[in-house]
Amino acid sequence: MLNKFMHMILATSVAWIINNYRRLSIDNAKIKAVKCYVLGLRTVRETFICGVLVLALLLVIFGGLILVHVGIFLLIPSMVVKSILMIALGAVYTGGALYFLLQQCSEKNWMELSSADKLVEQILKERK
Predict the structure, then answer these.
(1) Would the pLDDT of 1 be above 70?
(2) Total number of domains in the chain
(3) For 28-73, how does the pLDDT look when each residue is reduced to its tens digit (9 = 90+)?
């Protein structure tokens, strides 16, 4: 009788240990998968940023430079108010485009767009 009871306790303990090990292994696998996903997202984000920034900033900078040069050109003969306005518009367009690009390329924005922040939060909640 005592021998069967000891076997039952031993079997229950082994089953409990195996179940906990399986749960921890699955949790660790989920964490590693989320880590790979976030790192992959970071790589895609950085590639996107490089491509978009190079193309868009060159376009915006050239447009701003053209407006500044036209404004300076118009400033010399006269029409002072029009030229200052063109210089100011060139600066505003360039600054606005830079601000927009920086907002769109932020890591926080990419985490929200891809729902990676929710995924990380969910995995961390399950871990506790």
Answers:
(1) no
(2) 1
(3) 788 888 888 888 888 888 888 888 887 887 888 788 878 777 776 7
Contacts of 94 (CB under 8 A, 6+ apart): 60, 61, 63, 64
Q: For residue 15, what are the CA distances in angstroms to 4, 21, 70?
A: 16, 10, 80
What is the model's pTM? 0.42
- Residue labelled with tokens 């079997």: 11
Q: Containing domain of residue 122, as a range?
A: 2-127
Query: How many whole angstroms separate alpha carbon 31 and alpha carbon 28?
Result: 5
- Give the sign of the dihedral formed by CA 92, CA 95, CA 101, CA 107: negative
**Both structure tokens of 14:** 């082994």
Instruction: Please give the structure tokens belonging to residue 123.
Output: 């995995």
Residues 67, 105: Cα–Cα separation, whole Å:
26
